[in-house]
Specification:
By secondary structure, this protein is mostly helical. Helices cover 52% and strands 0% of the residues. The chain has two helices and no strands.
Amino acid sequence: MKTSNKKTKNLATPGKPMSQDEFVSLIKEAEEGEFMSEKEFEKKFNEWRLQRKK
């Protein structure tokens, strides 16, 4: 799964505070994504790592 690049706002810029509503909307957007269990992640990670060793 790839992240979308539709946001052009740089959230890492210091000195530019974010409103509470913006913060809550970012959290809600992140929670809507697909998640996998710890076992599924470990399996995919190990497969990826083995492919990288070749």
